[in-house]
Each structure stands twice: as structure tokens, then as C-alpha cells.
Specification:
With 300 residues, the chain is α+β, with helices and mostly antiparallel strands. The chain contains 7 helices and 21 strands. The protein folds into 3 domains: 82 residues, Uridine Diphospho-n-acetylenolpyruvylglucosamine Reductase, domain 2; 110 residues, Uridine Diphospho-n-acetylenolpyruvylglucosamine Reductase, domain 3; 81 residues, UDP-N-acetylenolpyruvoylglucosamine reductase, C-terminal domain (Uridine Diphospho-n-acetylenolpyruvylglucosamine Reductase, domain 1, Alpha-Beta Complex). Strands 6-7-15-11-12 form a 5-stranded antiparallel β-sheet, with helices on one face. The chain has a 4-stranded mixed β-sheet with strand order 1-2-5-3, with helices on one face. A 4-stranded antiparallel β-sheet has the order 17-20-19-18. β18 and β19 form a beta hairpin. α1 runs antiparallel to α2. The relative contact order is 0.14. It binds flavin-adenine dinucleotide. Flavin-adenine dinucleotide (FAD) binds next to β3, α4, β9, β15 and β17.
Length: 300
Amino acid sequence: MRRESLEKVARDLRGEVKWDEPMSLHCGLRVGGPADLFIEPADLADLRDAIAALEANHIHYLVVGGGYNLLIRDGGIRGCVISLRGLDTLKPLPGARMEVGAGVTNAMLCRVAAEDCLGGIEFLCGIPGTFGGAIAMNAGAHGSETLPHVEKLTTLRQGEVVTQMGPELEFGYRFLKLQPGEIVVSAILRLEPAERRVIEDRMAGYLALRGKSQRVGYPNAGSFFKNPPGEHAWKLIEAAGLRGVSVGGAQVSEVHTNFLVNKGGARATDFLALAALIKQRVEATSGVMLEEEVRIVGEG
Ligand SMILES: Cc1cc2nc3c(=O)[nH]c(=O)nc-3n(C[C@H](O)[C@H](O)[C@H](O)COP(=O)(O)OP(=O)(O)OC[C@H]3O[C@@H](n4cnc5c(N)ncnc54)[C@H](O)[C@@H]3O)c2cc1C
């Protein structure tokens, strides 16, 4: 019955459909077993139809952006994975504002904002992934975060379009309160007029800083753990003597100790075991319990 229901979702979709898609292709760490069904709806209407069918048939679904903040378990994902690459609106609006679809990459958003002489989100230029992922994670860097720039957020809750104004949103460090299954489809950003050269110089500066500290050379998901209040996770991991420590193909990067890297052939279980080891050793040496920033999904 479940397979039949998935087949109906796939048949009715106007966008792309893949069966048994290896999720390692959609995960920054390059791990993760297959998704039963992987879809890329053509547009918002196509997405709404797919969600309606999934909800009606009680089929589990998960939205992924670039997968740069995901650890997908080796058993993969039962049900349906949804990529929003088709939601790629990028529309400048009067008053230094821009409407951005969830499937737009941060790199593209920053490029277009610079061309339109709109600043304020330069910090996003080196953060891999999609705008939807940046909103869902409240991605941030260099003292700035995504959500404070949002004037209006549009989401789908169980298939219904919901809009919220910026001040209504509940968010914090790498956190936005969304209801289970709620999907970010677009947002209007309030930006600041600035000279293109100034914006591009700022972005070049940020990218240069990343080049120094984050060129780890292997697939990764950026910072694996959140920084505890008043602390830096990388310093706690370093102090616990874990630089370069590995489990299977998963290793604490030699370059940046809060980046766990896939040295080749790692499985999700390697990363999970390495993360458990790090948490245990850091707690023993510093008394701090680290919390994962990456979201762990899928079947064991
Ligand atoms: C080299 C490197 C550097 C990084 N540097 C930073 C950094 O400086 N700052 C930072 O904050 N992060 C950083 N990251 C982590 C990552 O890039 C960000 O968290 C990014 O915002 C994830 O976007 P994504 O599209 O890949 O989301 P995904 O990893 O695909 O998804 C992340 C979570 O958001 C959910 N999600 C995704 N899209 C939607 C949507 N449209 N609606 C609802 N939920 C959604 C997913 O279900 C998942 O729970 C870095 C990662 C790497 C690899």
C-alpha cells in the first residue's frame, strides 16, 4: 500500500522523480543510505499537490536543501525526500527588499544581491547550501544571522500556505521554531543599499578568512557541534586531545577540530561513534556536554 501511495505521488508530480536515491549524493559528509522516493517539485503548486498526497497517505517526508548540515544514517530514509531546487525565485522588490525562494543557493543569492547593490547578507556567501536551509538553521557567521533580515516568511504547514512577519518568528542560535513537517518556501529579505564594490570586498574578505581556517580538504558538514554559551566547541575538542582522532573513515579534522571529515569510505555509523567519543571525552575534560549542530536523520 505504501509503495502504491508513493507511486501515485511520483506519477502526479510534474518535477523530477528518483527511486532509491543514494542520500550520500545529497549530504555534505557523503554518507547516507537510499531514500525510497526523492522528488524535486517543479514549483509551489507541484509541491503543494505532493504534500497533500503524502499527508493523505500518512507518508513520512523530509525536506533537504544542500545537505550541508545533515548526517544521514546508513539505512537511508523511508518515505519521501523533497528537494526544493525548483523554488528558485529571486525577485528584487522596491525599498531594498528581495523575495527569495527556498531553493536558491546562498552563493547565487549573494551574487544577485551584490549586482543589485543590496548589502547586509554578505556573511552568507561562504555558507554552503540553500536559502531554505539557511532560514531553517538560522545560518550565521561573522556576527550576523539570517533571520534578523527576514521581513516576511512563507511556509507550508501540512500543505497550507502560511505567512509570518519577521517579529512573529521565534529563532535563536542555529534555530528557527517550525512546526513538524513545516516547509520554508520563500522569504522577503530587507537589505541595505550599498556600493557593489563595498559588498564584493566584504564577501572577498569573508571568503579569505574561511580559506584560512576551513580548508579541510575532505567532505564535511562545517561545524559539527554548536558552540556552548561562552565557549568554542573547537577549543574544547582540541583541549580533549582529539585533533586527528578517527573512527573508521570519519576523522576530527587536523585543520579545524569542530569539523568532522570523511577521509574516504566513512559510514554514518563512523561519524556517530566519533561524535559519541568526542562528547564523552569533552565532558570528562571540561565538564561541558556538546550538542550536535548537524541534524541526524534516517534509519539506523
Ligand atoms: C564548509 C562548511 C562551512 C559551513 N559554515 C557555516 C557557517 O559559517 N554558519 C552556519 O550557520 N552554517 C555553516 N555550515 C552548515 C550549513 O552550510 C548550513 O547549516 C546551511 O544553512 C545548510 O543549508 P542546506 O541547504 O544545506 O540545508 P540542509 O543541510 O539540507 O538542511 C538542514 C536542516 O534544515 C532543514 N531544511 C532545509 N531546507 C528546508 C526548508 N526549505 N524548509 C524547512 N526545513 C528545511 C532540513 O530538513 C534539515 O533539518 C557550513 C557547512 C560547511 C560544509
